[in-house]
Amino acid sequence: MGSLYSTLHVRDPQPMLAQALRTWGGHEDLWVFGYASLIWRPEFDAAEQRPAAVHGWHRALQMRSRVNRGTPECPGLVFALVPGGSCRGMAYRIERRRGAAELERLWAREMPTGVYDPKWLACRTPDGPVTALTFTLSRSSPAHTGAVPDPQMIDILRCAQGRFGSTLDYLLDTATSLRGCGIRDREIERLVALARHHALVPDEHSKVCRAGSPNAPP
To answer: pTM higher than 0.85, yes or no?
Structure first.
């Protein structure tokens, strides 16, 4: 496993933004695939959203966070899309006329240090396939932790806190949001159960994570 205290690697995000704009081209509506916080805090007005699945990538709580969900002294974790497996999330359609401006806003949020590798992935949706931009993480990135052993995960969930809140809150918000969308993620459910076992999860949040929204499947 990579050390949570590895040196932060910063890449210039602007050339990657320029490349994304060129690849999109601006001739059609823009699609974005969300797999974690973009589902419960998208910060853009989508003209349409659809359940979607990508193959060859999976959601994992394996990206180091020293600002948003942790500190340099006590790094937290956030989800990333890493190679292997498959992932269910949401595909968002942004109208063409607003695509460039929304892409720049999205870049400011997701890519201030250029940590992700933006990719255009084929997404299966109930209304047909779409090609959507998403933010992936290479296993060779210094921000990638690899699998985090449960004892270390519990320490992180108990202690890591950043400018946007704790790693624990981030995990619970993602779990609740996915459940509300009818998306089951067994590893997330296992991590929530692990946190609950160690008395880190308030009872009322446990009930929400188990029940999901009124429209969610059991």
So the answer is: yes
